[in-house]
Amino acid sequence: MIRPIFLKEGDKIGLVATARKINPIEIAEATETFANWGLEVILGDHVFGQDNQFSGSDKERAFDLQNMIDRKDIKAIICVRGGYGTVRVVDRINWKKLLESPKWLVGFSDITVIHSHLNRQIGMESIHSLMPLNFETASHAAINSLRKALFGKELKYSIASHKLNKTGSSEAEIVGGNLSIIYNLTGSISDIDTKGKILFLEDLDEYLYHIDRMMMNLWRAGKLDKLKGLIIGGMTDMNDNKVPFGKDAYQIIHDIVKAYSYPVCFNFPAGHFPDNRALILGRKVKLEVASKVKLTFEN
Questions:
Q1: CA distance linking residue 214 with residue 268, whole number of Å
Q2: Residues 112 and 73 reside in one and the same domain
Q3: pLDDT tens profile 141-179
Q4: What order of strands is seen across the sheet that includes strand 104-107?
Q5: What is the chain's Cα-based Rg?
Q6: I need a labelling partner for 203 at 20 to 30 A (CA). Which of 238, 249, 270, 291 fits?
Q7: Which of 130, 151, 172 marks a domain boundary?
Q8: Contact 109, 272 (CB under 8 A)
C-alpha cells in the first residue's frame, strides 16, 4: 500500500466539495483549526459553488479534485462534506496522477467512494475521518485524531466492550466506510475487496430493513466470510416501519455474522456523530476484542 508523506507545519492542504453544497460559515471553524496546526489552506475554485443540491456541476467538482491531485505543492486533500455526489465524479478523475505525487485524501460518508476506489485501483492509504463541516460540533478527541493521522503520530484506541462483541484478536489491513456506499459500489471498478482484511462499517438515517438488505448483499457477495475482523461504528438515526422490523441495526448485523470465528466489535467511535475518530484505511492494524477493545495502527 502506498503511504503518502505525513504533513508538517507550512504544508498546503486543499479543500474540495465533491458532493453537496456548503457555505463559508460552515467550514470557518475547520479552516481556523488547520491554520493553528500550521497548515496553509487552499480552496477549490468551486468549493462554494451551487448546482441544485451539489457544490457545482459534476464537471466543476471533478475539476477541483483533479486540480488538487495534480498540484505537487498540495500535500493533502480534505473533502469539506458528504451528502451525495462523489460517485458522479469518481470516473472523471485521472487517479494515476496520485502515483506521481501521493497525498492524503480525507473524509467519510459519501467520501467512501474515494476510499474504496483508491484502495482497489491505486493501492494507496487514505484517512476516514470527520470533515470541515463537522468541526463545530466535533469532540476534541475526534479532531485530535485527524491531526495525529495527518502528521504521522501514533494512532491507537481503547474503548469499552459491547454486549454483542465477539472476542478475539487479529492483524490485517483495515478497509471500509459507509455501508450504503459500499453497497452502491458493488460490481463497479471501485467495489471493495475484503478478503483477508478487517472491515469497518457505519451508516446514517437508513431504514432497518435496508440495513438487513445491504448486509445480506455483502454476505451473498462473499464479502463477509473471509474477513479477519469486523468493526461496526455508528448506526445513527435509524428508522423503522409502522410494522417494526424487530431488531436494531447492531442486532441485524450480529445475526448475519455470528457464525464466523473472527473478532467483531460494535459501537466503535467512528461515524455520523461528534466523536468520529480517524481511521487510516489501507493500513495494517491490530484488533483486540476482549473486556476492552483495542485498535492499534502500524507505524
A1: 20
A2: yes
A3: 999 999 999 999 999 999 999 999 999 999 999 999 999
A4: 40-43, 12-16, 74-79, 104-107, 126-128, 279-281
A5: 18
A6: 291
A7: 151
A8: yes
The answer to whether residues 162 and 130 belong to one domain is no
* One domain for residues 146 and 168: no
- The Cα angle at residue 79 between residues 118 and 221, in degrees rounded to 5: 40
Residues 130 and 239 in one domain: no
Sorted by sequence, the CB contacts under 8 Å of residue 204 that are 6+ apart come out as 109, 178, 234, 236, 237, 271, 272
Distances (CA, A) of 250 to 128, 238, 258: 21, 11, 11
Question: What is residue 111's DSSP assignment?
Answer: G
Question: Among 149, 171, 167, which Cα is nearest to 266's?
Answer: 167
Q: Which domain holds residue 181?
A: 156-297
Question: What mean pLDDT comes out for the span 101-128?
Answer: 98
- Kindly state whether residues 111 and 199 are assigned to the same domain: no
Give me 35's grid cell. 491554520
SS3 readout for 219-240: HHCCCCCCCCEEEEEEEECCEC
Q: Measured between alpha carbons, how far apart are the two ends of the chain, in Å?
A: 13
- Edge to edge, the sheet with strand 264-265 lists 156-160, 292-297, 284-289, 168-178, 198-204, 229-236, 264-265
In degrees and rounded to multiples of 5, residue 71 shows phi and psi of: -75, 120
141 contacts 248 by C-beta, under 8 angstroms: no
| Residues in the chain, overall count | 299
pLDDT digits (tens, 9 = 90+) for 117-133: 999 999 999 999 999 99
The pTM for the full model equals 0.98
Kindly tell me if the per-residue pLDDT of 14 is higher than 90.
yes
C-alpha cell at 115: 476510499
Please list the residues that pair with 176 across neighbouring strands. 200
Q: In this predicted structure, what is the pLDDT of residue 299?
A: 87
Mean pLDDT of 61-79: 98
Cell matching residue 64: 477541483
Q: Are 130 and 117 a contacting pair, CB within 8 Å? A: no
Contact 270, 233 (CB under 8 A): yes
